[in-house]
Amino acid sequence: MTSLRPRRRVCLFGTSADPPTGEGGHRGIASHLAGVDGVDEVRVLPVYRHMYASKRGKQASFDDRMAMCRLAFNGLPNVTVSDLERTCFERAAAGLSEEERASARVGTADLLDMLIADEPDTDFALALGTDTFMDLTAWKWRRSRDVLSLVGGRILVIHRISDNAVPGGVLAERIKLVNEEFDREKSGSVGAFMEGERHHVDKSSEEGGPVKVHQIETLSDISSSFIRSCSNEEILKAALAPRVFEFIKDKQLYRFA
């Protein structure tokens, strides 16, 4: 029997959150995404385990990053923080030896497989930064094409106005190509999830396609990597939610170590 309940629509916002930044960064992005028409929930997913072993062990602990995310996104309507990346890895690694766990590779497609199985009445979308979107659609990710298919092509590309690494024309052309390819493969079955937004969306290149560009004018150039190397408390207080700043000091993270 077909369910009469409306399908939930969840935007997944994956981030290393090392640390999560404030209104000019991660919190501002989550707030923006929560204001997009058609999004019922923004689910922040701190990275549990980097895909590449060479990059593991160089971050603050997962528990500390989860705690900072809960502080950073506290009070934002329809924004939740989830440890589902850990859940996904632990399910995939169940029964493996320590050596096998160390080499296990669990990626975004595996997470989406789990979410879709656990939440069959939910449609998922991905929020990605420009560079990340370019890597995904150059098919550099594990199961890249599966990722695109599992979210029905629904990707919100967060493009910083100051981002010169990927020129706007290059991004627009890539989105056009991806939308055209996806439309051919799916024969127009994408549906209307997130076709309209209350916030500014650059639709010059992707009209009618599932991939959308979002330019958030309030985003700053301060990155998490800069925060990790910074000891200037005034800069840190301006870039971080107050309770995140206090958490970093109390836990002696980054330059406070």
Give the arrangement of secondary structure elements.
Elements: E1 8-15, H1 26-34, E2 41-46, H2 62-72, E3 79-81, H3 84-93, H4 98-103, H5 108-118, E4 122-129, H6 130-137, H7 144-150, E5 155-158, H8 168-186, E6 201-202, E7 211-214, H9 224-229, H10 233-239, H11 242-251
Parallel strand pairs: 1-2, 1-4, 2-3, 4-5, 5-7
Antiparallel strand pairs: 6-7
Helix pairs in contact: 2-11, 5-7
Q: Would you summarize the structure shown here?
A:
By secondary structure, the protein is of the alpha/beta class. The chain is 40% helix and 14% strand. Mean pLDDT is 87; it is low at 188-206.
Task: Provide structural commentary.
The protein is of the alpha/beta class. Helix content is 40%, strand content 14%. It is built from eleven helices and seven strands. It has helices at residues 26-34, 62-72, 84-93, 98-103, 108-118, 130-137, 144-150, 168-186, 224-229, 233-239, 242-251; strands at residues 8-15, 41-46, 79-81, 122-129, 155-158, 201-202, 211-214. The protein has a seven-stranded mixed beta sheet, with helices on both faces. The longest helix is centred in the last third of the chain and has 19 residues, at 168-186.
Question: What characteristics describe this protein?
Answer:
7 strands; seven-stranded mixed β-sheet; single chain; alpha/beta; 257 residues
Overall average residue pLDDT: 87
Low-confidence stretches: 188-206
Number of helices: 11
Largest sheet geometry: 7 strands, mixed
The proportion of residues forming helix, as a percent range, comes to 40-55%
Strand order across the largest sheet = 3-2-1-4-5-7-6
Helix and strand run: EHEHEHHHEHHEHEEHHH
* Percent range for β-strand residues: 5-15%
